[in-house]
Design goal:
Radius of gyration of chain A: 22 Å
Low-confidence stretches of chain B: none
Structural class of chain B: mainly alpha
Largest sheet of chain B: none
Largest interface: A-B, 105 and 103 residues
Structural class of chain A: mainly alpha
Oligomer: heterodimer
Mean pLDDT of chain B: 83
Low-confidence stretches of chain A: none
Strand content of chain A: under 5%
Order of helices and strands of chain B: HHHHHHHHHH
Distance between the termini of chain B: 67 Å
Number of helices of chain B: 10
Strand content of chain B: under 5%
Chain lengths: 250, 252
């Protein structure tokens, strides 16, 4: 049956390539239109831009096919086996390690916390020394990673116990608003943004597969209404705890 | 011309992102669950594709889209500075650019593609992957446009976020229950690889060019807008779909 697997793969890749062209068409159009109509400038280095576009399309297609045959099945098998084994401790430890581990080294988070620390130093919240700026950035980064780990644990518990998500989310919103009142003004923007940057391109599919796999295996849970929601919690808790961090440090 | 594209370095950087995750999965599967990995060859091949795909994608973005997009965001922001009557028109261009860049980068976002495909599968195709992505992209577009409006006018961030939260809370009560978790999730996944660099350049460029704004206080916050408004638009899309189905049923 070897050749049939190969033809299947080639067909999947072909479909993914077409899909990638469709996905990237809007952004290419927008940038080309603005370049020509508004800024009246020809493209510098057209050749390297075309090569880059080709790479982006091929890359997106490979990523989507790889998700379907690698990341998604492994994540779901793992979730199903955890649900069957019934060991809550190991499942929660895994959930925490996944959230903490993938967030702490996230490049976007490192960039944002460094910017935020520099901004806090210029505002006079912390000493304008590179050592204290680094310490502050690391503190925010660890806070975010811990809160994402905690959020995944909470989300997994929610799937197991069947807690309604809206209560958790709206409750979280109320906490965010309360913290906004008390936290130092300079950290609010950073805290709000840190919620958005935590969830990276590798983590998101895996966390989605974990949630859907758990919800599918546990009786009485629906993959759609119970399986999703982990990412929402993971982008909400960092806001609360980064503001809390600001409150404690200052 | 400096060489921006360095394939080896890029592959290594992507491997640094992907391999710890793979290691964690394999560790738990073999040591804690004591189960063999099903079809290991296929899964390793899939991970290689993800790795290679992300490296190509990021490398291509750096080569083709980011330099042009960043220059454009900065040029538009600088245009806003040249005051007088003309500034209104140049702000108009900025809002249009913000809207279109928010929409188009979201459509290209790999993490959103992954979640939308998963949602389509988990809902047995009652949620369409493409429809969900368009709803999210419209939300991001509106969010980024409002966010640039906030930077230009200098109004406080928390007011917008607070009103957004109130709208989400009300919609949560009214919207069909099956869409709610997915809508909340779509807020978090929208802002990653493609959107953040372009949007951050726009925000910081505007905050340092519009008179009276400081990059420290006003440069942040666009990402928060981009993660809040998709929740509203996805809930709204589900409400609209429900309303249309109800109306069709009443006519019969």
């Amino acid at each position: 049956m070897r050749p049939s697997i190969l033809t299947k793969l080639i067909m999947a890749l072909g479909r993914a390539l077409l899909g990638a062209c469709r996905d990237l068409a809007p952004i290419i159009t927008v940038i080309a239109l603005f370049q020509i109509l508004v800024l009246h400038q020809p493209f510098p280095e057209l050749l390297s831009i075309l090569a880059g576009l080709g790479l982006v399309i091929v890359g997106l297609a490979l990523f989507v096919v790889g998700l379907d045959i690698g990341l998604f099945p492994l994540g779901e098998t793992l979730a199903e086996e955890f649900a069957r084994k019934g060991s809550l401790f190991w499942l929660l430890l895994f959930a925490f390690a996944l959230g903490f581990g993938t967030t702490v080294a996230e490049p976007a988070l490192i960039a944002v916390t460094r910017e935020g620390a520099r901004a806090a130093a210029e505002a006079g919240l912390i000493e304008n020394l590179s050592a204290s700026i680094d310490r502050y950035a690391l503190g925010v980064r660890l806070t975010v990673a811990l809160s994402v780990g905690g959020a995944i644990v909470l989300g997994v518990l929610r799937i197991l116990r069947g807690w309604p998500l809206p209560f958790l989310i709206v409750g979280g919103y109320i906490l965010v608003m309360l913290m906004t009142l008390f936290a130092p003004k300079e950290i609010v923007g950073l805290a709000y943004d840190s919620g958005g940057v935590t969830t990276s391109t590798v983590t998101v599919p895996l966390v989605a597969a974990l949630g859907v796999g758990l919800a599918r295996t546990i009786r009485g849970r629906d993959p759609l209404t119970d399986g999703f929601g982990l990412i929402a919690l993971a982008s909400l808790t960092p806001m609360i705890f980064v503001m809390f961090y600001g409150l404690v440090v200052h | 011309m400096e060489i921006l594209f360095n394939p080896v370095r890029l592959l290594l950087a992507t491997a640094k992102d992907v391999l710890p995750v793979l290691g964690l999965l394999v560790l738990f599967q073999t040591l804690v669950l004591k189960r063999p990995i099903p079809r290991p060859g296929r899964i390793i091949f899939g991970f290689c594709l993800v790795l290679l795909g992300m490296a190509c994608f990021l490398g291509g973005l750096d080569l083709a889209l980011f330099p042009v997009g960043r220059t454009m965001a900065l040029q538009l922001a600088e245009g806003a500075q040249s005051g007088g009557r003309a500034s209104w028109i140049s702000y108009g261009w900025i809002y249009l650019f913000a809207f279109m860049i928010g929409f188009s980068t979201t459509i290209a976002e790999p993490a959103l593609i992954a979640v939308a495909n998963k949602a389509q599968e988990a809902s047995h195709k009652s949620v369409s992957s493409w429809g969900l992505r368009i709803a999210v992209a419209i939300g991001v577009a509106i969010g980024i446009t409002l966010g640039t409006f906030r930077i230009v006018t200098g109004t406080p961030l928390y007011l917008y976020i607070l009103s957004g939260y109130v709208v989400v809370a009300v919609q949560t009560l009214l919207a069909p229950r099956m869409i709610i978790p997915l809508a909340y999730d779509s807020g978090g996944v929208t802002t990653s690889t493609v959107t953040v660099p372009l949007v951050a350049a726009l925000g910081l460029g505007l905050a340092s060019n519009v008179p009276g704004r400081s990059p420290i206080l006003d440069g942040f916050g666009l990402i928060a807008f981009a993660s809040l408004f998709p929740i509203i638009s996805v809930l709204g899309y589900a409400q609209l779909a429900q309303w249309m189905v109800q109306r069709r049923n009443q006519k019969r």
